[in-house]
Design goal:
Strand content: under 5%
Distance between the termini: 46 Å
Helix content: over 70%
Largest sheet: none
Structural class: mainly alpha
């Protein structure tokens, strides 16, 4: 039962944050949102893709989560980081869907990879700071599970680079 509640809890974080991003895009408007989106994620402009632009958003998100997980007071904000990333995911998804020529870019690259990154970040959050139903005081963090999570991040980044470099152009 607790696993089902945890899955529902994390899926709700993703869904609500994504919808909030969509609503924010409609409130701000397309003209104002474009400069903000391209500042945070310049890959959406269709410019030349680089490994640095691919790795930086993931490294920043993982770094913030690791930093928040190390301090007892800041642990409550760990899932907020993933919620903010999912909100930007929804925000930029509307931007890509509004551009008619970017439909395949959204379908093949943006949506699947950003969804997988958000799920992997939630898994990392759950490994570092378990949800309320699985908390055990004094229990060690499972090192093998965290390493598998980082390996999954690496595999997804390589797959994303292959899709961006060889399939989409």
């Amino acid at each position: 039962m607790s696993r089902t509640v945890s899955i529902f809890y994390h899926a709700s974080i993703l869904a609500v944050s994504f919808v909030c991003g969509v609503i924010c895009f409609h409130i701000i408007g397309s003209a104002n949102a474009e400069s903000f989106i391209l500042y945070i994620e310049p890959r959406l402009a269709g410019d030349k893709q680089s490994i640095f632009r691919l790795v930086l958003p993931v490294i920043v998100s993982v770094g913030i989560i690791l930093l928040l997980a190390t301090h007892n007071f800041l642990k409550i904000f760990i899932r907020v980081t993933v919620a903010m990333r999912a909100t930007f995911f929804g925000f930029s998804s509307v931007f890509l869907l509004q551009k008619l020529e970017a439909f395949w870019l959204y379908t093949i690259w943006w949506f699947p990879f950003q969804l997988i990154y958000c799920i992997l970040l939630l898994v990392l959050c759950n490994l570092l700071v378990p949800a309320w139903a699985k908390r055990r005081m004094g229990k060690q963090v499972p090192t093998q599970s965290i390493m598998l999570n980082f390996i999954a991040f690496f595999i997804i980044m390589v797959a994303e680079f292959i899709v961006i470099s060889y399939i989409l152009p």
